[in-house]
Every structure is written in C-alpha cells, then in structure tokens.
Amino acid sequence: MTTTLKAILFLALGYIVTGCSSSTLPTAKLHQSNTVDVDSYKYLIGAGDVVNIFVWRNPEVSGTFVVRPDGMITTSLVEDIPVSGKTPTELARSIEVILATYLRDPVVTVTVNNFVGPFSEQIRIIGEAAQPQSVNYIQHMTLLDVMIRVGGLTEFANGNGALLVRIENGLQKQYNIFIEDLIKNGEILANVDVLPGDIIVIPETWF
User: Fold this and answer.
1) Domains 50-113 and 119-202 share a fold
2) For site-directed labelling of 5, which of 21, 34, 65, 172 has its Cα 20 to 30 A away?
3) Signal sequence span per UniProt (predicted)?
C-alpha cells in the first residue's frame, strides 16, 4: 500500500469517526413480573414455548404450535394470535373468542410443552456464578435452588456481597443476599424466596 493511499484511508477513517454523533443509548427497561409473592405464581407462555391447542369436535383446527419470537402463533384459521404473557387458560378463552367467528360455540383446551416463558418470568444470574445463565422459575423456588442450578460460586466470588434486583410497583429495588453464608457455611437462614424476573448479581472479591 502506497503512502498516499494510506493517508487517504487515514483521513477517510477520521472523517467517519468524527462525523458520527456520539450519544447514550436509553437504559433497558426491566419488565415487572405478574408474580408479586410466592403464592400468586401462574405460568405465563413465552416465545419458544410449544402450545398444544385442542378444539373439541374440531380436530382440523387443533394442533401443536411453536410460539414465535414476536409472541404469536399461526393456526390454520388465524395467522397471528398473540399468546405471549398469557396463562394457558387465558389463551384458551382468547382462542374461543377468535374461533367463534368461524365455529359455533368452540371449546378450547391449551397445554404447554418446552416451558421457556417470557424474559420477565426468568431468573438471571450474572457475575461470579460457576455457570451464569437464565433459569426458568419453578413455583416456590429459593436462592439455594437457583445456586444449585448454576453450579455454585467461582473461587473468585464475593458471595456475601451479592445483590438481588427486583422490580416492585414499577420501581427497581436491590436486596443484599448472603450466598457464601448459605452454600459454604450452611446458614439456612440466608436462604430466601426468589421470584420470576429477579436478577442476581455476584461480584468478584477484591482479595
């Protein structure tokens, strides 16, 4: 590459960099789960779930459908049915209303396979967990259950400096959790209930 060509490329790159305006992206919005306590949990359908729709006496419109990334399914009669964020019972009632345009008094039953659910219903564990990941919530799940699923802490984790982030009444709240006391020292009083949508942040120790 000649010196002249290098100079032209350098100037062009400088123009691209300086010509682009720099701004801050808006903060991601965390969506609050419908579950506000351990006794109010109901499974919500999400993208990636497999829903089985049975329409009584109408096998031709029954079937198994994968929920698309946009939270909808396509059936033989209706192309776009929104399903994400609904319970199986709520979805069954919604489909009955839609099918009433084509069928007389449809009776619908919905069951779910695969169980992915919306992001707002998953528990996310980040930082110094052995296997950071999103975990599907199971009724009455606790911090201990979550830590078993992610394989515990790394050797560099500050487990007692961990935080649990939860959306309550539209506001983001943080709670101190003591994972090291729980899983290394066996202090069962450090075990707490977790809820759908919780985020667990495990920092690295400073020493």
Assistant:
1) no
2) 21
3) 1-22
pLDDT tens, position by position, 77-109: 999 999 999 999 999 999 999 999 999 999 999
Q: What is the pTM of this model?
A: 0.83
Query: E-strand spans in 60-198?
Result: 63-66, 72-73, 81-82, 108-113, 122-127, 133-136, 162-168, 171-177
Distance CA 2, CA 148 (A): 60
Tokens 């329409």 belong to residue: 55
Rounded distance, CA 199 to CA 167, Å? Answer: 10
For residue 5, pLDDT over 80 is answered with no
Domain covering 50-113, topology: wza like fold (3.30.1950)
Could you give the CA distance from residue 98 to residue 109 in angstroms, rounded to a whole number? 14
For residues 66 and 112, give the distance between their C-alpha atoms in angstroms, rounded to a whole number. Answer: 10
